[in-house]
Specification:
Helix content is 57%, strand content 16%. By secondary structure, it is of the alpha+beta class. The relative contact order is 0.05. This is histidine kinase.
Length: 470
């Protein structure tokens, strides 16, 4: 191509440099294509790229020789230009066979550069068509590099196995270890097992490990949970796999240190919960026993109060001047309902109990004079009614009282009960029997205060605080 001699030297130098870069890129790409054994490249594609490299070499020779010696290209390289016929034909074949358009573009650009064509400014077409091939080599090399990085190769498989955080070991049917990553070798070393051990016998070696200061082993179905001091907790599994009708041994070790820590924490928490459950069960039994004892005490107090009331009434009737028949007529109703009064529920209405007391003591001429009304709080009202019954019974039995005065007081903070009688004031210190402690206990259970006084008359004063809302 003698027309190239007419170009400025700087242009020929520039394109010579570009063609040299293109030859380097195309050579690297061909080496990558040939070294990739994981997939087979069609012969047409590979042949096309080889002849494209030959075209680039011929092109740089045509351009470079013009800088060294004149008229040499026409004489020595004219016939070599027919080599471009091969990539032209291959490009057309690839287009028709594989529907790839890029090779067709190369054929179109190469066709006018053949020696059979001569036209004005052909040297410029030659240079700019080769400029396309320079950029083509760079783009296709970049695409090939990214494709290799994204594909699975033997090297990438080995790298993935080595970087796997767990342990991996594969052996063939004869027990030869084919691959073992660094994690598995480190674990076997920590367990004092040689990495060169027969892969078939390796699992048996793991099964024979005894618990020690540094290692503890626990069988989980067909797996082994091995805790290694300063190396974490690992779950080993053994499996035979079939690939292309060949059997291989697969030994895996998965790091479950975090899960094991959580499991042990849960086990400890469960043990604590079980202990708390036993303590709670024991506490419930104690509460049931205490509640049973409390009910027994309440029943004893109730029997004491009711029997004391009836006996006091009977004693007063016997001391009176009325006839025996009148005594029987008055006391008989109190005897007939004695069992019912004792077995009645403790939650009997305080109002009914107070009305019954007033009627019962009226039979012997003892009046219960009430000022005010029972509190609306039924629990407090019940305690007040029980206290009034015990006070009335004691007034009749011990003080020979003819009247019992009851006064209910209330303010924003507390309920108050004042009980007095007109009986004989005791001269000796008061000795509390079974009734007074029972009254005191009921008041204290509600957080109240219990007071006994003698001046100016014998009295009992009770204060129970109101429960604050919210």
């Amino acid at each position: 191509m003698i027309e190239l001699y007419g170009l400025a030297p700087i242009i020929r130098i520039f394109f010579s440099t570009l063609l040299f870069i293109a030859i380097s890129l195309q050579t690297i790409r061909l080496l990558l294509l040939l070294s990739h054994k994981e997939y087979k490249i069609p012969w047409a594609f590979l042949s096309h790229e080889i002849f494209m490299l030959a075209h680039l070499i011929l092109a740089i020779m045509l351009v470079t020789i013009t800088l060294l010696q004149r008229n040499i290209a026409a004489g020595y390289f004219y016939e070599f230009r027919f080599i471009d016929v091969i990539p032209v034909i291959l490009g057309l074949w690839i287009m028709l066979k594989h529907r790839k358009q890029e090779q067709l573009v190369c054929s179109i650009l190469l066709l006018p550069t053949l020696p059979i064509y001569t036209f004005a400014y052909s040297q410029y077409f030659f240079l700019f068509s080769n400029l396309y091939f320079v950029f083509r080599s760079a783009v296709l090399l970049d695409m090939e590099w990214h494709r290799i990085k994204g594909s699975i190769t033997r090297l990438s498989v080995k790298e993935a196995v080595d970087l796997f955080p767990g342990g991996i070991l594969y052996g063939d049917g004869k027990g030869r270890t084919l691959i073992a990553n660094p994690t598995m070798n480190r674990l076997l070393s920590a367990l004092a097992i040689q990495s060169a051990t027969d892969a078939v016998l390796l699992w048996e070696s793991l099964m024979k490990i005894q618990d020690s200061y540094n290692v503890s082993v626990r069988a989980l179905d067909d797996k082994l949970l091995i805790r290694i001091r300063n190396a974490g907790t690992w779950l080993f599994s053994n499996q035979t796999i079939i690939i292309k009708k060949k059997s291989y041994l697969q030994l895996l070790a998965i790091d479950i240190t975090d899960e094991d820590v959580l499991t042990r924490e849960m086990e400890q928490s469960n043990k604590k919960l079980e202990e708390l459950g036993r303590e709670l069960s024991s506490a419930i039994k104690n509460i049931e026993q205490l509640e049973q004892e409390r009910e027994i005490l309440r029943m004893k107090t109730r029997v004491h109060d009711i029997l004391g009331q009836r006996l006091s009434i009977l004693s007063r009737l016997l001391e009176s001047d009325i006839t025996a028949q009148d005594i029987i007529n008055k006391f008989k109703p109190l005897l007939t309902d004695l069992t019912q009064a004792i077995t009645e529920t403790i939650d009997i209405s305080p109002q009914y109990l107070l009305s019954s007391l007033t009627h019962s003591f009226s039979l012997i001429g003892t009046g219960i004079h009430i000022k005010g009304t029972l509190p609306e709080a039924q629990e407090v009202a019940g305690v007040f009614a029980e206290v009034i019954r015990e006070c009335a019974t004691n007034a009749v039995r011990h003080a020979d009282a003819g009247n019992v005065y009851v006064e209910f007081l209330e303010n924003d903070e507390e309920y108050r009960l004042l009980v007095q009688n007109d009986g004989t004031t005791p001269s000796d210190p008061i000795v509390e029997g079974g009734g007074v402690p029972g009254m005191r206990r009921q008041v204290y259970e509600l957080g109240g205060a219990f007071e006994i006084g003698l001046l100016p008359q014998y009295y009992i004063h009770i204060r129970i605080p109101k429960k604050q809302k919210g």
